[in-house]
Design a protein that fits this description.
By secondary structure, the chain is an alpha/beta fold. The protein contains eleven helices and 19 strands. It starts with a helix and ends with a helix.
Length: 468
Amino acid sequence: MGKTIVLLTVLASIPAAALDLGGIRDDEVAVYVQDLQTGRVVAEHRADLPVNPASTMKLVTAFAALRALGGDFRWLTEFKSTARLRPDGLLEGDLYWVGSGDPVFDQHDLLEMQAQLRDNGVKHIGGKLTFDRGIWHHTGTAADFADDADQAFATAPDPQMLAYKVVWLTPEYDAATGKLNVKTSPPLPDIPLRNLAVFGRSSVPCPKPQKFIWGKYRDGILTVHGKVPPSCAGKAVYVNMLEMRDFSRLSFINQWRGGGGTISDGLAIGGTPPQARTLARIYSKPLRDILADMNKHSNNLIARTVFLTLGERASPGNAGRQNPAAAVQSQLQAAGINTAPLVLENGSGLSRRERVSARMLGNMLQKAYHSRFRAAFINTLPIAGTDGTLKNRFKAIGAPLRLKTGTLKNVRALAGYYLGGNGRPPMAIVVIINSGRSDKLLGEMDRLVERLINPPLPADKLSDNIKR
């Protein structure tokens, strides 16, 4: 008991000047640690300075979403039409894809909705596929990331979002010829595929097939390269290609035709008539589960979509008046959080502009910990040594440590909770490095977090503790 009392006394009284930053310079880091039982600030350093948080900004978006929408919120995607359906299964007009922006809508969901169309008697579509894109006024920005445009992490939200806009390439062994064939998902029969990949004789394992096979899309041709060991057969890799509208259009049309239906190649953009009837619909999984995907794997597309959805829900039916940043600010302010240092661009941290302070993030973590959605919020965070972006970090601490990571050029960040144990209280922890040498300070940052969780006892306290 005496040991616990001494340790808690030390935790409650670490002055900012006594922080051991290790190899991190004073001007490179912002720190804020708060005891969640007493509310006492355990440690702080440059805590009020606006800093770039990288992907720890996703915590702000998650907090606002759980507070405004609730963990049970789901996106709804619908196919509608006003056209007459003939007894022979011909829909005599257009089919409207009413986009919700569902960030996890995938090819399986598309096929499920097409199955619903067939169950409702639609065999052929006589009109055009029409995208209803009225949910948002725009899809937000992530300025200064043009060089990453072909990377999946930079894919922007879209009302007709589908499968992160990636085509999956699966190498298959052709027993008749002994050659490597490539199957695409979705099927893309109208896009020439130039297959330069071959099977090698190596018996090496294939934990990461992208090391052996990859695709490039240029000038309307998809080219596949690689020397592929047999162990990679059946293992898919992806290539980010096509504009979002073309990707979703081709996916729908080719999947529909693959199921035996007919439809024209055209695409129209327009609002769904009020009298249109629903022919297929699907709900996303609950927001709480989607936010776990977002935070554990630092998914920018989900964060940016949630951000836009908050703006849309604050101004329903009036896309021109939507202001996602104001909607997030409003939720934080209503929770009693000082948002003075907050600068928002897209809510994901994929931004050179976004700013928070360590204190603001820490205060928000404290509010979330004592909120009605505490469990849902904590469950979105990577678990040290177990999953997500913390799978290979802090293994000695393990499950009590739940931290969102953040990584950008010149930025490394951690923010979340130590849930307590071994005489230590639960704590909100924020450590943000903004420095040109941030990529060299990852180990130093992790060791700083460990010291913040379990600070060394001063010599006089240590000797007193031994006597006890």
